Amino acid sequence: MGNSVYLGGGGGVTFPIAFPNGTTLTDSASGKLLITGTVPAVQFGGTTNAFPELAGAGNGLLANYADGTSFCAVELGPLQFGRGALTGALNNQMGWFDAYPTITSGFGTSPSITNGNGTFSFIVNVGTGGTATSGVISMVGSVLNFWVAFCLDITAAAGHTGLRTVMTSATTNSITIESQNSSGVATAWPAGSLVRIIALAG
């Protein structure tokens, strides 16, 4: 039978079963099967990236494409996991997406988004010019109601300037943030200011 073993029919099966490629299947305890090998894994349907596999990794478990090129998605009812991390748990209800948000409008010259963990946590460099007070950020994915963003002006905090950055409005796929002074008046970010943002669906 090559690399296959038929477990049905009469006569029973003798464990452990050793396969030609170095994988061993053992009846380790009542109701338990143990797979051992260089990288123990179970592939479903095929061996290419069109099929998934579950693979052991130390004391963890990885959901990969069967050819090992990347992580694949895992769905548990409405919960969706992907790329080895939680990227869209109830995607439009929690708002965790892999891709970085992008600048839509506002800010200074050449603003950018860096050092991100998808939409959950990222840093906005407000750009140069020193006159911008607000900006709009596209959050890549749409959520059910709206986004909620918590902002920390790292540059202002380090310089003890009293400026703060807050979210002033949000839609299902964007947020608007603004720099304010201690009285809540819109005040320009100094050139190159860095703002850390943590965002979730509201």
Summary?
The protein has 202 residues and is mainly beta. Helix content is 5%, strand content 42%. A hairpin with a 3-residue loop joins strand 14 and strand 15.
The radius of gyration over CA amounts to 25 Å
Distance between the termini: 56 Å
Major beta-sheet overview = 4 strands, antiparallel
Mean pLDDT: 83
Q: What would you call the shape? A: elongated
Strand content: 35-45%
Number of strands: 16
Question: How are strands sequenced across the largest beta sheet?
Answer: 9-12-15-14
CATH C-level name of one domain: Mainly Beta
Low-confidence stretches: 83-90
Classify the secondary structure makeup into a structural class.
mainly beta
Query: Would you list the SSEs in sequence order as H and E?
Result: EEEEEEEEHEEEEEHEEE
Write down the CATH topology of one domain. Immunoglobulin-like
Helical amount among residues, as a percent range? under 10%
Tally of helical segments: 2
CATH architecture of one domain: Sandwich
Notes on the protein architecture:
This protein is mostly beta strands. The protein has a domain at 102-201: Immunoglobulin-like. Helices cover 5% and strands 42% of the residues. It contains two helices and 16 strands. The strands form five sheets. Strands 9-12-15-14 form a four-stranded antiparallel beta sheet, with no helix packed on it. It has a four-stranded antiparallel beta sheet with strand order 10-11-16-13. The protein has a three-stranded antiparallel beta sheet with strand order 1-2-3, with no helix packed on it. The termini are far apart.
